[in-house]
Specification:
The chain is built from seven helices and seven strands.
């Protein structure tokens, strides 16, 4: 089996197993705080169409539709069980599929037309993508001109953060994932015609990057 296919299947199976306990424990506190900060960083304009890439069990989408008059949030994740859990949570909140839609899919094959989304969020999943440049290219294609891409992921600038990256790989048994320095993240984004407009560390070990899509 091709190594990339093997890793993708391993990741999918891992998150299928995590779907039920995903919303518990200390990591869920981190996810909630990350979502709160992400929504404070950017303005959610009325009638926006928003993509949550690597949506997990859907808390970002739920937070958006409950606080903003957006048109629709689309959540995409590779894991069938994760998407199933997200849909169950949406139903519990009595939110329609037209307002908040969850789809099984790949980050490097976004099944939507060019210039479809106003904002793309990618919170805490970028390190799983085996072809990050292709993912950024797809986001560039699917985002409107001047649309915003909000990225949050661990980063490796200094020895303490590098050590944290090693710890994460070991505790989650994810030796295949890739964390990046601030400089490499910026290079990948600028290379795909994104303009970085805001960047700040979050809880020291992760990095928020907000960038604008430049198509013209």
């Amino acid at each position: 089996m091709d190594e990339s296919i093997y890793i993708e299947e391993k990741t999918k199976n891992q998150f299928d197993k995590w779907a039920r306990p995903y919303d518990g424990g200390v990591w869920n506190l981190y996810f909630k705080k990350a979502i709160k900060n992400a929504l404070n960083i950017v303005e959610l304009k009325e009638n926006s169409v928003i993509l949550d890439l690597g949506c997990g069990t859907g808390d970002l989408g739920l937070a958006i539709v409950q606080r903003s008059k957006i048109r629709q949030v689309i959540g995409i994740d590779l894991s069938h069980e994760i998407i199933k859990t997200a849909k169950e949570k949406r139903l519990q909140k009595n939110i329609s599929d037209e307002k908040l839609k969850y789809i099984i899919g790949r980050a490097d094959e976004i099944k939507f037309p060019d210039s479809y989304f106003d904002i793309v969020f990618c919170l805490n999943s970028f390190h799983h993508y085996l072809s990050p440049e292709n993912v950024i290219k797809e986001i560039h294609r699917a985002l409107k001109n001047d649309g915003l891409f909000v990225l949050l992921d661990p980063f490796l600038n200094n020895y303490l953060r590098k050590g944290w990256g090693v710890f994460l790989k070991k505790i989650f048994k994810e030796e295949h994932v890739n964390y990046y320095t601030r400089e490499l993240i910026n290079h990948m984004l600028r290379n795909k015609k994104f303009k970085i407009i805001k960047q700040q560390s979050f809880l020291y070990f992760t990095l928020f990057t907000v960038c604008q899509n430049i198509k013209k």
